[in-house]
Amino acid sequence: MKQLAFIGLLALAAAHIARGAAPVGSPVFIHGQLAVQGTHLVNQKGEPIQLKGMSSFGLSNLAQFSNRHSIKWLQRDWGITLFRAAVGVDGPRGYLANPRRMEDIVEEIVEACTTLGLYVIIDWHTFTSESKEEAKVFFDRMSKEYGHLPNIIYELWNEPMEVSWDDEIRPYMEELTAVIRKNDPDNIILAGTPRWSSLVNLAADNPLDDPNTMYVLHFYSGSHKQQIRDGADEALEKGLPIFVSEFGVSHYDGGGREDRAAYLEEADRWIQWMYQHQISWANWSLCDKDEASAALKKGADVRGQWDENDLSESGRYIRTQIKRSNPLLIK
Q1: Residue numbers annotated as active site
Q2: Which end of the chain is more exposed for a tag (fewer CB within 10 A), N or C?
Q3: What element of type H or E holds 267?
Q4: How far apart are CA 97 and CA 20, in angstroms?
Q5: What is the mean pLDDT of residues 136-154?
Q6: What is the spatial distance between Cα 327 and Cα 331, in angstroms, rounded to a whole number?
Q7: Architecture of the domain delimited by 31-323
């Protein structure tokens, strides 16, 4: 009996190592290597799963809230299984201006998520394909460094604007996918779609050949409603796997201008729709910016430890949705 128990411990230890040394009981320990089957994200057992979590704000501007302490708090208090690192590409503080700074920030987030056993999206956060060559360099480095881990997800182009899927977006995704797959044959890739990743159906007739690619849908509940869900339903009916890597409960501009409302009734419809289809999601965003989509109020500690008074209306709503397994129990 002692020998059998010892063998069992060895098997558990081996499985632990195979999962990238994720803590026992953590999301990555439980689900391991992810894959795509049909329209679903599935775990190492082939079971459909839904990841839920938070996105950073653009890390070129408000990186201070995305650190190992705050991410640990999000896991402990909110129950996140996913964190998205939005790598600001453009502007005076972005990757193009200071690659080393941005890589250091991303590496801290990835290593924190790996230590905690969380899945992490590395997001090339831009709106055009002008930085394609720099994106290749970046994702080559990221996939060489982290491609052996099972918790990495690559988002190759955050929000393509009014450009063609066939003529511009798909060729871009093919080139970037080839760079990553040389180093990492298995982890999930997220492909942005036309019109700020709102028209996922336009990719459904000509998807990429890569079997572990999912297609990005972004929405803001104050601006994007049933028409966008109808297009996404069309894509699902054609077999296209969807991943909502960014959404907010505000107007599409983040709710920082004239319209500062939180549209929670429409957010309820979106949350339920994602639950019904087991679509994974990350909410925009973990920051204290003066806008409706920000999860935190001014004065919130950058290291976490937030109580209800530190959270915005959006932050309180999203925390509730992450913590509850049944999204019909709203607010």
Answers
A1: 159, 246
A2: N
A3: helix 264-277
A4: 33
A5: 98
A6: 9
A7: Alpha-Beta Barrel (3.20)
